[in-house]
Amino acid sequence: MADENYAQQTVRRAREAEQASPSGRLPVPSYASWESFPYEGELQVRPVSDVVLPEPPRHGEGSVDCHACAAQDEQYVWTDEHWRLRSTAEPTGLPVVLLLEPREHVDLHDLPVALRAGMGDLLCRVEAAITSLGGIARVHVSRIGDGAEHLHWWFMARPEGLVQARGSFAVEWDDLLPPRPRDQWEADLQRVAAAMRG
């Protein structure tokens, strides 16, 4: 057991719990009953998968074929000398979903000190620009980083009154809700850009 890494220990404990369960699966978590949980009906937790080592490479690993590095400034909502802010390619279920990326191909752990110093202020500026659209209750800011090596911060605007999309399930609701009309979405992106420039 001492030679197992953390992931292997986690999988072993989960499989033991699966075997001890009458259903042979881990129990559905309590948040499945929350109002914000987007699914209903009988749910099952998938069996725990094997540990994969080494992990598969993330997109753009080692700066190879990185979409963010290859993108032109015209594809972004706003840019400055160090950072670029882009939208999703198509309208989303939530008002806007934006990603903030450094120009340089770095991840959070190797972000240059000069960029670290202003990053907190910039995160607040983007949140304020999105909130300036009006009718935005919250802007969820997150950094996941499992899909691509190039650092990117997610900004997801939850509209005021859409309380069912509160919290971490806003990501799910964004995928489930019908996309906004393109003209409204594009107008809001222009307004965010103007707020960032102002």
In a few lines, what is going on in this structure?
With 198 residues, the chain is of the alpha+beta class. 31% of the residues lie in helices and 14% in strands.
Structure explained in plain terms:
With 198 residues, the chain is α+β, with helices and mostly antiparallel strands. The chain folds into 2 domains: 1-55, no CATH class; 62-197, HIT family, subunit A (2-Layer Sandwich), CATH 3.30.428. The protein is 31% helix and 14% strand. It has 5 helices and 5 strands; from the N terminus they run H-H-E-E-E-H-E-E-H-H. The chain has helices at residues 6-20, 67-70, 113-131, 170-176, 182-197, and strands spanning 78-79, 83-87, 97-102, 136-142, 153-159. A 5-stranded antiparallel β-sheet has the order 1-2-3-5-4, sandwiched between helices. A hairpin with a 3-residue loop joins strand 1 and strand 2 (83-87). Helix 3 (113-131) packs across helix 5 (182-197).
Give me the Rg, rounded: 20 Å
As for the CATH topology of the largest domain, it is HIT family, subunit A
Pattern of helices and strands: HHEEEHEEHH
CATH class of the largest domain: Alpha Beta
List the helices and strands and how they pair.
Blueprint: H1 6-20, H2 67-70, E1 78-79, E2 83-87, E3 97-102, H3 113-131, E4 136-142, E5 153-159, H4 170-176, H5 182-197
Helix pairs in contact: 3-5
